[in-house]
Amino acid sequence: MSALKLLNKTMTDTNFPLARDLKNTFFDAFSDQGDLHYSVVAPNPLSGPVLVSSNDQLAKDLGLKPDDIAGETMLSLMAGDFSVANLQPIALVYSGHQFGVWAGQLGDGRAMTLGELQVEDALTGTSELWDIQLKGAGTTPYSRFADGRAVLRSSIREYLCSEAMHGLGIATTRALCLIESKTPVYREDVESAATVCRVARSHIRFGSFEHFHYRNQSEPIRALANYVIDRHFPDWSDDDEKYAKLFAHSVTETAKMIAHWQAVGFSHGVMNTDNMSILGDTIDYGPFGFLDAYNPDFICNHSDANGRYSFKNQPSVGLWNLNALATSLMTLISSETLVSILKTYEPTFLTLYRGLMAAKLGLSHYNDTDEDLINQLLQLMASNNVDYTLFFRNLCRFSDDRTAARDMFIDRQAFDFWAEKYHQRLGRQPVTDEERRQQMWSTNPKYILRNYMAQAVIEQAQQGDYSGVNLLLEVLQNPYAEHPRAQQYAGLPPDWAETISVSCSS
């Protein structure tokens, strides 16, 4: 029996519910290319692990029992002790452009893929594989002199934000559980180590393809593309245009993802090509931020001195990154086809973004005259320093009471001028005020993960109190509901929120 087949076998030699069902298709998919795409890794378990939070909702979605997630075996597994389940984790290799500059080889420096879980959809009778990945379990061949650890503060941010994005209906990785350990980690100060169990449809990135392109290795590019197609789009496997279809899918889904980011006021902060999913899912939550006051020039990443990844630049960066991906696929797809597909990005983005913004305004559909209405509002919000999320929530009550929205503006006369045009537009659509109001309640969230909220529960957790983390998890998984226990998070951020700084180290 080959070593790869043996690894596959040992992954199933356990009775633990999660590990029992894990498999790793990487071993078979790339068996003829050795370890070009990944490295087998040995974790360095954390000592004295404590469960901070388990995501019961996601556990149920994956067909797991919440009790299993909170049990001692799972705690050991999530702390990096894979001996309890006979797992053989791997780290994926990739490269990428960072802040527009080719950075060379990167890879999973502190993340390990435990395997893939096959999840059945009872409604459709279909199944889908989900990557189960552990972040913070120690060094890998791609750690680049780092310790392979994650700290509690950044782990809380990732854990909560991935679920917040899911709650907002945005394509994203998710988080199954969060573990803290007293194993010390040395950053600016000594901090507690932590791990996050990440769940994703795929962790294949634009940079996964770039890695082989810049090494002039065409066959691994083909193998990687075939792997993605066979796993996610098996109906295309025998299609002569399958590679073009894969790229077109990436273009479309990336455009959709960023349109949703812009509509909810989310800023990723580090849109390097190695942080872009081939499936168009939001991945790698580091120095992210949601808008407080609307500011198109908002830069959430303190490390982004030139504002490359500012809020307003995200759509154009998405296209830049797709061009980088296209370059990496030139051995599979003709230049003419690649250019033709890239040209669909902008209209796809604009169509969806305009539709999303129209929905935020309670419009049943978007028409060309609405562009001025939307742009004038955003300019007015920017010049008046108006909170983005709170304004749209207050606007839901427009027909009954304009005061809540109006009072958010310094220049109320300018708001009144806009409001009259908005009122006239509402009067031309075939829906009642009640129908419009209900649609707006379900479109404009009451809660987003503001940086001050994350910071508040981080400080609680650092003192051993995890209640704030779990309350926010509950709220962010359903951000449109009222949540009476969380009203403190529904208003304007406190003044001290402006002092919070996040960077690539966050």
Verbal overview:
This protein is α+β, with helices and mostly antiparallel strands and about 500 residues long. The chain folds into 4 domains: about 5-205, no CATH class; about 205-355, no CATH class; about 365-440, no CATH class; about 450-500, no CATH class. It is about 40% helix and about 15% strand. The protein is built from 20 helices and 13 strands. The protein has helices at about 5-10, 15-20, 25-30, 55-60, 65-70, 70-80, 150-165, 205-215, 220-230, 240-265, 315-330, 335-340, 345-360, 370-385, 390-395, 405, 410-425, 435-440, 450-460, 465-475, and strands spanning about 20-25, 40, 50-55, 90, 95-100, 100-105, 110-120, 125-135, 150, 175-185, 190-200, 265, 290. The strands form 4 sheets. Strands 1, 3, 7, 8, 9, 10 and 11 form a 7-stranded antiparallel β-sheet that branches. Strands 2-4 form a two-stranded antiparallel sheet. Strands 5-6 form a two-stranded antiparallel sheet. Strand 7 (about 110-120) and strand 8 form a beta hairpin. It is globular. Mean pLDDT is about 90; it is low at about 1-15.
